[in-house]
Amino acid sequence: MQFLSDSLARVKPSPSIAITTLAGELRAAGRDVIGLSAGEPDFDTPDNIKEAAIRAIQAGKTKYTAPDGIAELKQAVCDKFARDNGLDYTPAQVSVGTGGKQILYNALMATLNPGDEVVIPAPYWVSYPDMVRLAGGTPVCVESSLETGFKITADQLEAAITPSTKWFIFNSPSNPTGAGYHPEELKALTDVLLRHPHVWVMTDDMYEHLVFDDFTFSTPAQIEPKLYDRTLTCNGVSKAYAMTGWRIGYAAGPKPLIDAMRKIQSQSTSNPCTISQWAAVEALNGTQDYILPNTAVFRRRRDLVISMLSQIEGVACPVPDGAFYVYPSIAGLIGRTSAGGVAITDDEAFAKALLEEADVAVVHGAAYGLSPNFRISYAAADETLTEACRRIQVFCAALR
């Protein structure tokens, strides 16, 4: 009898986590590896949030809570959606999970049946397709391009929808590209969705507050209120509040869906860490004054990385609207050979050679569903980014 499940055979480990782990192992072995693969702010969690967690511990708030979050955090989520997005939810419409990933996973597990399709714009966060597969569904990936700013068009979305489509996953600003949909671009997509009432919308708004220049963030149910009753608006505290390890994500949507997600969570992890929940209450309700200064730092780092990568012949590096990633194209480098004798046949070969010969860890574009590219996370110190980009310049200059 087969021991491992068939479902497990449908998924693969996260490539970004694998690269980050490998970089750590190489550093431990004495290599001077610069890791630019982890999607996590290098800032410390703000003091007011840490102090709220300490107060919770001192007050003995260390017991089980309701499976999907304390009432105070659910209310804070409602207040956040009203304040930032003009969306009105009640606490009964809110689910809090162990990170944004669990929220997405719970929703997919609660709704997908074999044969159900989920439309996912590519490039995509590496976990979307595998979570769909694990839940029994079929990912339908729609490729964008460098020419479209790594955004899909309304016509592409229309063509991807079938009678079997259950969800459209929407992420803006995007991981891995940092591309953001302007309100008029998002309205074109929501107009398509209005014509297909069987399709639900799952948003991943994790990078909402990390936006640059003149970009204005918006989320689908905000742009098109008629989609409110079939939209799950997902977010979390990981990125904007530098709370990746605290593991708190949240979502709001129609109560029957939230109830189903609660059932999944009650029989899997149960409640998120109680202390982290109280910290998240402070994150959402407390001062937001550090978000703009942190965003300014990310914007400076973005400009630094783009300036240096754009000097490399054969590399095209579009300017992201938000998040803390760049997604350069290496189409002009395919077919060359590295100084170490590695044939650059695709972006995975490029990333492996870059790590082996230049000690810089990046994630290859195929992991995100669009090649030939690679992703850099610029959530690192300016000096680190400068040295990493210098090494990439030297590595590329030596290609023949």
Automatic annotation (TrEMBL):
GO terms for biological process: amino acid metabolic process. Its EC number is 2.6.1.-. It comes from the Bacteria. Coiled coil: none annotated. InterPro entries: Aminotransferase_I/II_large, AspAT/PAT-like, NHTrfase_class1_PyrdxlP-BS, PyrdxlP-dep_Trfase, PyrdxlP-dep_Trfase_major, PyrdxlP-dep_Trfase_small. GO terms for molecular function: L-aspartate:2-oxoglutarate aminotransferase activity; pyridoxal phosphate binding. Its cofactor is pyridoxal 5'-phosphate. Keywords: Aminotransferase, Pyridoxal phosphate, Transferase. It catalyses: L-aspartate + 2-oxoglutarate = oxaloacetate + L-glutamate. Residues 32-392 form the Aminotransferase class I/classII large domain. It is an enzyme of class 2 (transferase). Homodimer. Belongs to the class-I pyridoxal-phosphate-dependent aminotransferase family. This is Aminotransferase. It comes from Phaeobacter porticola. The gene is aatA_1.
